[in-house]
Amino acid sequence: MERNKSSSRRIRDPRGAALTALKYLVLIIGAVIMMFPFIWMLLTSLKTLPEAISIPPQWLPSALRWENWSYSWNLVPFALYFRNTIWVGFLSVVLTLTFSILGAYAFTIYSFPGRNLCFYLFMLTMMVPSEILIIQNYVTCSTLGILDSFTGIVLPTVANGFYIFMLQEYFMQTPPALFKAAKVDGCSNLRFLIKVVIPMNINAVVTVAILTFITAWNSFMWPLIVTLSDEHTLLSVGLLRFRQASSSNLHNQMAAACIVLLPMVVLYVVFHKKIMEGAASGGIKG
Q1: Would you tell me which of 47, 133, 165, 286 could form a disulfide with 51, CB atoms 3.0–4.6 Å apart?
Q2: Which of 277, 227, 265 is nearest to 35 (CA)?
Q3: From CA 170, how far away is CA 108, in angstroms rounded?
């Protein structure tokens, strides 16, 4: 019997190895297809203009021209745009985490009239495209006098129904015995949130923070509408202004795009494990 089993395993092993190799091949091909636009952008940013617009395309630059990056950096105030974007990202993370954590905690711990209705209304906001709210948000910001300001950029985006729903699913996994024991020891609800709930669900909190920062970094339509001066311009809008200033210099435009994209690549490389852990543990808990 043992010989039969070992022989059958040997027969199946080549087929399993072939399937594994095929899966890896498909994944590699998919990764190359997904990465090709970014690789082409990087290579084009290091070419001369004739090399960038040549037909048929010239795949590799004859020499690495890093001066394209320095020229692009100095053509428009990218340093100011970076500072503005980082500040807006920081404000968005702090405010979004504050509202999302408190909202999710309230729906998890407290029982009040209309709780389910309020929760369903938050869920309904996930079905409304943000573009539909642009006019209402603009009128509101204009009435409040916060146009062309960081407050006007950040304020309409800090309440997110998806993040509240996501964190509530995590918070509901907190054992009720911990909450009862904390109340017996005289722990307040806020202290229980800070000392117990958040540390137990730190992966979810970090994931929400990273996604919020990435969203703020990549936001384009709303900052374009609400900002008028360079003092409050973000990188995404600054890239559009760079395109207008650089005319048809494709290689410089690709260099500017690399400058804008590079911090997000670094952020993903540093925190991708946290994102994956948050998503995986969320799937297990669900």
Answers
A1: 47
A2: 265
A3: 10
Q: Burial-class residue 137 by CB neighbours within 10 Å (0-12, 13-18, 19+).
A: middle
Q: Which two tokens stand for residue 201?
A: 């669900």
Residue 134 sits at φ, ψ, to 5 deg, of -60, -45
Structure tokens at 278: 């948050």
For residues 245 and 72, is the Cβ–Cβ distance under 8 A?
Answer: no
pLDDT of residue 285: 45
How many whole angstroms separate alpha carbon 230 and alpha carbon 205? 32
* Residue of 140, 103, 137, 150 lying closest to 123 (CA atoms): 103
Contacts of 256 (CB under 8 A, 6+ apart): 72, 75, 78, 239, 242, 243, 246
Q: Please state, in angstroms and as integers, the Cα–Cα distance from residue 233 to each residue in 18, 79, 135, following that order.
A: 53, 11, 20
How far is residue 100's CA from residue 117's CA, in Å, rounded to a whole number?
17
Mean pLDDT, rounded, for 201-228: 90
pTM: 0.81
- Complete DSSP assignment for the chain: -HHHHHHHHHHHHHHHHHHHHHHHHHHHHHHHHHHHHHHHHHHHHTS-HHHHS-SS---S-SS--THHHHHHHHHTTHHHHHHHHHHHHHHHHHHHHHHHHHHHHHHHH---TTHHHHHHHHHHGGGS-GGGGHHHHHHHHHHHT-TTSHHHHHGGGS--HHHHHHHHHHHTTS-HHHHHHHHHTT--HHHHIIIIIHHHTHHHHHHHHHHHHHHHHH--HHHHHH--SGGG--HHHHHHHHHHHHTT-HHHHHHHHHHHHHHHHHHHHHHHHHHHHHHHHHHHH-
